[in-house]
Amino acid sequence: AIDSGGGVASSASYSINGSIGQAAAGFVKSTSFLHWVGFWAGDVPNPTVAPTVGAAKMLADGTFVSISGKIATSTEGDFAGFFYLEEPNRSSGIRVAFPAGAISGLVRGKSVVNVLGVMDKTPAGERRIAASVIVITSTNPLAIGALGLNNRSIGGGDLGAPPFGQYGITGGTGLNNVGLFIRAWGQVSYVDGSYMLISDGSSAPIKVDTSGLASLPANGSYIGIIGISSLRIAGPDRLPLILPLNTADQYYP
Known about the structure:
This protein is mostly beta strands. It has one helix and 18 strands. The strands form four sheets. It has a five-stranded mixed barrel. Strand 14 and strand 15 (195-199) form a beta hairpin.
């Protein structure tokens, strides 16, 4: 209970928020339910239940979707306003956008997460879920590791028939891996505070976003990158982009 002066009360299973002159509102959660307490916010449509990340990507933008039992492959501190989920078998991954401060406690590779939200995409065409509810339900005992890919394979071809599916890179072939947690490597041919280029000799250099990194490798050095396979736009083309995770994992000799 919260007095009329407002405040917050919480435990491992509930969070109740109140303000002056306002009834208490919050939720109680478990591994099988999420029960809202307080305000009636109008009718909520039944979500489309997507059994897999790949199935969610086949849905149209604006579809209200529910997806459960997927593994977080980044934490709330790795990127600003979004994190990534992946199938336990590493077959597909997806970005999940959330309001700042809306989630905490994600453990990369281990947190099992349920998400309720709306299908959307980034300006580059990467599918994402704009989440309204995110619940960490349990911890996976065996952490998901990064999938090793050579530069030529990053991005891959289209999945489905985008926008009902996921764009790959322009002219890309092979399995689509946009949204997956990956490991890549190569020699640095350019580096600054916005991006660097790496090449392993199998394709044109791959751009790596460096905007969130505390330190940068030397130009000409050979490095490895642990991060997310993403997309960027250059003129009419979609090209691969790697989003590295926190500084401890960004690269190694």
